[in-house]
Write a structure and sequence with these properties.
Strand 3 and strand 4 form a beta hairpin. The chain has one domain: Gcn5-related N-acetyltransferase (GNAT) (Aminopeptidase, 3-Layer(aba) Sandwich), CATH 3.40.630. It has 5 helices and 5 strands; from the N terminus they run E-H-H-E-E-E-H-E-H-H. It has a 5-stranded mixed sheet with strand order 1-2-3-4-5, sandwiched between helices. With 163 residues, it is α+β, with helices and mostly antiparallel strands.
Length: 163
C-alpha cells in the first residue's frame, strides 16, 4: 500500500499516541477511563527501561493508528512472548490494510525475537475486530477468564499492607 508507513514511536510522538489511546477508549465505550498522561507514557515507554513499545501507522503522512505491546514470558513454552495491549486504527481509515500491517509487523518482531506467541484480548461485543482477527488466523482461547487486581488500595490489600 503506497500511502502506508509503519515506524517505531519516539518520545516526540507521545502527544499523538495519547490522542489515539483516547480515541480507542471512546471506541470501546469508555471515554473517561483513560487516566494516563503524556508524562506517564514518556516515563514508561521512553525511559531507561521501557515497559512498552509502540508502532505508529502513518497514512499519507498522518498518524492514523498504533499498536502498543510488551514482552511477557511463557513458562510452558520456555520462551518470551508478546502481549499486544492495544491495536487501533482510526475508524475512517479501517479496511485499508493498516491493522493487518500493524499485526504483521508485530509477528515479524515475534519471529525475529524467537517469541513463542502473540496474545491479546478483544471485547466480546466487538464482532468486527473478532472477525478481523479470525480472518488473520487468530484463535479464541477458551476456558480462561481474565482476572485483575486494580488500584492502589486493592494492591495494598493483596500485599497485606495497611493504608
Amino acid at each position: 500500500m503506497s500511502g502506508l508507513r509503519l515506524r517505531p514511536a519516539e518520545r516526540t510522538d507521545v502527544p499523538v499516541l495519547l490522542q489515539l489511546i483516547r480515541a480507542l477508549a471512546t471506541y470501546e465505550r469508555a471515554p473517561d477511563a483513560v487516566v494516563a498522561t503524556e508524562a506517564d507514557l514518556l516515563r514508561e515507554g521512553f525511559g531507561a527501561q521501557p515497559r512498552f513499545r509502540a508502532t505508529l501507522a502513518e497514512y499519507d503522512g498522518a498518524v492514523v493508528g498504533f499498536s502498543l505491546w510488551f514482552y511477557n514470558y511463557s513458562t510452558w513454552l520456555g520462551r518470551a512472548g508478546i502481549y499486544l495491549e492495544d491495536l487501533f486504527v482510526l475508524p475512517e481509515l479501517r479496511g485499508k490494510g493498516i491493522g493487518r500491517a500493524l499485526l504483521a509487523e508485530l509477528a515479524r518482531t515475534a519471529l525475529a525475537e524467537k517469541c513463542g506467541r502473540v496474545d491479546w484480548q478483544v471485547l466480546d461485543w466487538n464482532s468486527p475486530a473478532i472477525e478481523f482477527y479470525e480472518r488473520l488466523g487468530a484463535k479464541k482461547v477458551s476456558g480462561w477468564f481474565n482476572m485483575r487486581v486494580q488500584g492502589e488500595a486493592a494492591l495494598r490489600q493483596l500485599a497485606g499492607e495497611r493504608e
